[in-house]
Amino acid sequence: MTAPVFLVEEDALTGVFPGTVFPLDGPEGRHAVSVRRLRVGEEIGLTDGQGTGVFGTVAAVEGKDRLDVAVTSVRSEPQPEPRITVVQALPKGDRGEVAVETMTETGVDAIVPWSASRCITQWKGDRGLKSLGKWRATAREAGKQSRRLRFPDVAEPMTTRQVAGLLSGAAFAAVLHEEGHSAALATAELPATGDIVLVVGPEGGVSPEELAAFAEAGARPYRLGASVLRTSTAGTAAAALLLGRTGRWS
Prior knowledge:
The chain is α/β, with parallel strands linked by helices. The protein has helices spanning about 25-35, 95-105, 125-145, 160-170, 210-215, 230-245, and strands spanning about 5, 20-25, 45, 50-60, 65-75, 85-90, 110-115, 155, 170-175, 185, 195-200, 220-225.
C-alpha cells in the first residue's frame, strides 16, 4: 500500500527538502499517532493540498499528537490540463457529500454547488454555511484518502446566472441532459487545455429556462449513455469519461 497522506497548512512545506525533519502536530498529528498508530520507520506523506507533497519515514513519535518526519523526497504537481470543474446541483440529504467524495477520488479539480430551480434542498443562512463546510471537509478527507497532492476547490454556491457566467469562459461547456436530442459526451470534441465545465442538474432535471440560459453562455446538452444516473453519481461518471479521453488517466 502507498503511504498515508496528511494535510498541512498552506506554505508549510516551503523550504522543505530531502534530509529535512518536519514536525507533524495538531489534529493531523493526533490522527497519525493516535488513530493510524504510525510508528518509527513507517512511511508517511504530507501535502499542502495545493500541489506540493513530501514523503519520508517517521523519525520519532512524541506523546499522542506529534511525530517527526524524516523527508526523503519532495514532489510538486503542476495544474492539470485541461482543468475539470463540475457544477453540482444540490442533492437531498447526504448525497451531496457522496458526490463530492467520489468526484474528489476520481480527480475533479473544482466543484461548484448550484442552487437549481428544481432542487428540493436549498442552502440558506446557517444551514447553507454548515452544508458548505461539510462539502469542503469531505473534499479534504477524500483528497487525503485518495493520496492527492492537489485537492479540489469547493466554491461558494452559485445561482443559475453565476453558473452561466462560469460557462461562458470555459473552453468546453456541457450540461448533462438525458433527452434524446442531446449529443454523446463520449464523442464530443474536447480541448487539450483550458477549462472543461460540466453541469449536473438535480433529480428533477434542468429546467427549460436554465437550459436556455446555459445555451446562451455556450453550453450544449450532452448525454452519458442509455441509462439515467442520479445527480450524485452523474458528475463522477462524466469526469471519469473525460479524464480518460483527455489523457489525464494515461
